[in-house]
């Protein structure tokens, strides 16, 4: 939770006193005096002195629709039409046949795992470089999240590391389009077909991201989205499952609504199947629906600014920008790059981050090796998991974390900035590039400073 909370609390702080979102195009030239050339951490002037766009942002024009729901008293989905309207509109937006709105991204994952028959004692191949909810969703189903490795060039699941981890218990593959970077889905789907496994995309950070002309969320059996406050399409909390199979989506609807029959998924009595309450509220639906145009516009701005950043940053020795799968379009929920301390005179990543923060550029280290944090030890030492898996399997599982060399590298060398920075001006992007260049130039002095 730490990374996520840090990210969320950063966004909250960034929102305080921030200017309205600045769009593309301002062109003030940068003048570097001797004082400005000195790193801010060593007493110089920060490259970026202003604030950054806050998040979330909203428009006054949205208020009447929210008030209308409030005054109607029809707040839950069973009493009104807005959640269903949202489902249809979101399905259309991402090119899916169907969509189910849920209470959160986590519950979207829980619904998907359930309807794809991930049961107690099963295994799911998971991206380790993700928010902890991806691990938790599998664990809550009393299944084992088996980690494939992360490709250090793309920061997403390395398809070549999946097959060796498949056992006779494996039911599904759960790739994560982390930071809005599309996974290389073709080889993943091919492996899944070969071994008859389901594919659930964790697209919780990837609204409108594209892979080979199709949007993330329609590339596997089911896709899961989050609309939590920090997300590009936020409603405080919220989520969605998307897909093209009527049968699966009927099952999703039933499971998320206490097991009530839905569509063709019906039985002799209304509650004939297991279920829970993972429903979205009407308030969330109207807030979400009003943001589609904003999401589309801001996605274009983030993409343009990320490209500008990439062009500038990749010319600085020691900065490795991400490699994207062919014919893919990311949406940059965070803008990450890998940092090589050797090219910065041994300046540690931690100090590099502090130096960049001092220059007025908020950034952090992203996800760490969370499988060593104890939650998986707690799970595999629990009564339930010990009943479900043999001691030999649990021992081998625990030992397998050490094999995740790509993920370790990524966790130890990544630096990431949150999406709201990309909504600044073109000059703000130049400030980021200039700040990194300045730190590189003075890295020997910074490495010596305490
Ligand atoms: C990759 C990923 N998966 C799952 C989730 C869970 O979504 P939620 O917080 O809406 O439950 C998140 C949310 O941050 C996420 O980033």
Number of helices: 17
Low-confidence stretches: 1-29
Q: Percent of residues in helical segments? A: 25-40%
Structure class = alpha/beta
* Oligomeric state of the chains in view: single chain
Overall tally of domains: 2
The CATH superfamily of the largest domain is known as: Type I PLP-dependent aspartate aminotransferase-like (Major domain)
Question: From the 3D coordinates, which CATH architecture of the largest domain would you assign?
Answer: 3-Layer(aba) Sandwich
Shape summary: globular
Bound small molecules, by name, code or SMILES, are: pyridoxal-5'-phosphate
Mean pLDDT metric: 93
Number of extended strands? 13
Major sheet summary line: 7 strands, mixed
Beta-strand level of the residues, as a percent range?
5-15%
Terminal Cα span = 29 Å
CATH level-3 fold name of the largest domain = Aspartate Aminotransferase, domain 2
What is the CATH first-level class name of the largest domain? Alpha Beta
Rg from alpha-carbon coordinates: 23 Å
Adjacency order of strands in the biggest sheet: 1-9-8-5-4-2-3
Describe this structure in words.
The chain is α/β, with parallel strands linked by helices and 450 residues long. The chain folds into two domains: 2-55 and 293-367 and 410-448, Aspartate Aminotransferase, domain 1, CATH 3.90.1150.10; 60-291, Type I PLP-dependent aspartate aminotransferase-like (Major domain) (Aspartate Aminotransferase, domain 2, 3-Layer(aba) Sandwich), CATH 3.40.640.10. The protein is 39% helix and 12% strand. The protein has helices at 2-15, 34-37, 63-72, 82-94, 105-115, 132-140, 185-195, 246-256, 282-289, 292-313, 349-358, 375-380, 383-388, 391-400, 405-413, 426-441, 443-448, and strands at residues 98-102, 123-126, 144-147, 170-174, 198-202, 210-211, 214-215, 222-226, 239-243, 319-321, 328-329, 334-339, 414-418. The chain has a seven-stranded mixed beta sheet with strand order 1-9-8-5-4-2-3, sandwiched between helices. Helix 5 (105-115) runs parallel beside helix 6 (132-140). The protein is globular and about 80 Å long. It starts with a helix and ends with a helix. Mean pLDDT is 93; it is low at 1-29. The structure holds pyridoxal-5'-phosphate (PLP). The site of pyridoxal-5'-phosphate has 15 residues, from helix 5 and helix 6.
């Amino acid at each position: 939770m730490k990374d996520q909370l840090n990210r969320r609390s950063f966004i909250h702080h960034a929102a305080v006193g921030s200017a309205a979102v600045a769009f593309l195009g301002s062109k003030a030239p940068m003048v570097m005096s001797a004082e400005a050339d000195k790193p801010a951490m060593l007493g110089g002037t920060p490259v970026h002195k202003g604030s950054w766009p806050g998040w979330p942002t909203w428009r006054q024009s949205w208020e009447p629709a929210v008030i209308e729901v409030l005054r109607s008293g029809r707040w839950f989905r069973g009493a009104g039409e807005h959640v269903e309207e949202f489902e249809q509109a979101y399905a259309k937006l991402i090119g899916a046949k169907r969509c189910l709105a849920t209470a959160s991204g986590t519950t979207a994952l829980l619904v998907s795992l359930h309807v794809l028959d991930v049961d107690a004692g099963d295994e799911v191949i998971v991206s380790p470089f993700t928010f902890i909810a991806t691990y938790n969703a599998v664990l809550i189903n009393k299944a084992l999240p088996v980690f494939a490795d992360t490709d250090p060039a793309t920061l997403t699941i390395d398809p070549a590391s999946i097959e060796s981890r498949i056992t006779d218990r494996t039911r599904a593959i759960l790739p994560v389009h982390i930071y809005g970077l599309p996974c290389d889905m073709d080889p993943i789907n091919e492996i899944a077909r070969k071994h008859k496994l389901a594919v659930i995309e964790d697209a919780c950070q990837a609204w409108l991201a594209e892979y080979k002309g199709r949007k993330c969320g329609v590339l596997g059996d089911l896709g899961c989205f989050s609309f939590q406050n920090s997300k590009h399409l936020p409603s405080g909390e919220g989520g969605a499952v998307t897909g093209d199979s009527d049968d699966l989506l009927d099952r999703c609807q039933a499971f998320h609504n206490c097991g009530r029959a839905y569509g063709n998924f019906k039985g002799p009595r209304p509650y004939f199947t297991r279920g829970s309450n993972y429903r979205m509220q009407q308030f969330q639906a109207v807030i979400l629906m009003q943001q589609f145009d904003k999401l589309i516009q801001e996605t274009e701005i983030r993409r343009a600014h990320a490209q500008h950043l990439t062009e500038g940053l990749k010319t600085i020795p020691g900065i490795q920008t991400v490699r994207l799968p062919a014919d893919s379009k990311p949406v940059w929920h965070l803008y990450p790059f890998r940092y090589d301390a050797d090219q910065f005179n041994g300046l540690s990543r931690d100090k590099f981050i502090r130096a960049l923060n001092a220059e007025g550029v908020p950034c952090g280290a992203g996800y760490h090796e969370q499988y060593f944090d104890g939650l998986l030890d707690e799970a595999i030492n629990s009564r339930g998991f010990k009943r479900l898996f043999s001691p030999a399997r649990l021992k081998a599982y625990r030992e397998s974390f050490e094999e995740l060399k790509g993920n370790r590298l990524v966790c130890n060398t990544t630096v990431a900035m949150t999406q709201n920075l990309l909504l600044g001006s073109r000059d703000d992007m130049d400030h980021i590039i200039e700040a990194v260049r300045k730190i590189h130039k003075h890295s020997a002095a910074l490495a010596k400073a305490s």
